[in-house]
User: Fold this.
Amino acid sequence: MSTTALAQQEFCITLSDLASFMEIPSSVCKTRIEKRLKKKLKSPWLLPEEVRTVLLAEGYKYPKKVISIQMLKGGVAKTTSVLNMGLRAAMYGAKVLFVDLDQQANLSFALGVEDESLPVWVDIVEKRKSIDECVHFIEPHVDLIPSSLNNSVLDRVLANSNRNWAQAVKGPLEKIKHRYDLILIDTAPALSATNTAVTVASDEIILPVNPDKFAFLGLEKNLAELEDIKRDFALDFERKILFTKFDGRENTSHELLQRCIDSFEDSLMKSYIRTSTEVKNTVRSGKSLFAGKSPVKADYDLVTREMLGFA
Ligand SMILES: Nc1ncnc2c1ncn2[C@@H]1O[C@H](COP(=O)(O)OP(=O)(O)OP(=O)(O)O)[C@@H](O)[C@H]1O
Ligand SMILES: [Mg+2]
Assistant:
């Protein structure tokens, strides 16, 4: 990603962030980091590789998971969540592969990859392109398989395929999975063949839900569809619900959050994402939320730790 490479502040965790994560004073943290890295720290920013070395030495373990973000309802913060959770996970030292499987390609645009001529998933399935040709380096610890409008025929290609179409995401990913801790798949708002293939490839599915009157209906429909796919393909994925765009001033937010707690307590992620005007357009502007001052930064930090099993 040469044109819109993220600035250091957008992509590196600070010493004081890591100290508060490890629940120790910054001065103690600095000494520990210097001991682990066997060098003096010259900057308050820590590179993903440095954070990884420190956290592994401190006993943290990175998960190995394919996680997809799905919700048939549009605009619930799927892409915003994939982007910020993935970038934050990389800041914590995880090796992350983003896979954009939405033909709107918002995740790819946010990461600075906007080129209709690049090979995308449909080319892997239809033209037998190798998955390696589709992987783009974004930042250290962050790669992307981009999407584009060309993926809009993927559903049709899968429907007409006489190969085992349900393996169309899992199969190619198996070849490169070992290189990453987290593979995060962004999806289009649909119940589609592509999303079924994504489900087959997923160890975990995160379903974002935002407070509006159709949200609960959409969530129930999506969960029922996932249960069917789970049964039909004998799958064993975990599903998690992420409450997004929570607005403390609105009754609907409180009511829907309570409904989610009552109905899905075990699957509901412990942290939720508040609404904030600063989040608007982070995806479109290609800026990481972590460079700004939005309170939602802290929300995505907590959700990311939960995803990593660091909570
Ligand atoms: N916490 C938040 N507070 C305020 N606005 C938000 C928040 N999260 C996301 N948004 C805004 O909501 C809109 C939709 O978000 P996003 O594109 O991530 O949703 P999506 O589920 O990926 O949509 P689609 O289904 O079209 O792919 C965007 O304008 C985004 O900036
Ligand atoms: Mg999206």
Summary: Strands lie at 13-14, 45-46, 65-69, 96-101, 136-139, 142-145, 182-187, 204-209, 238-243. Residues 4 and 112 are 6 Å apart (CA to CA). The longest strand covers residues 96-101. The first helix runs from residue 8 to 11.
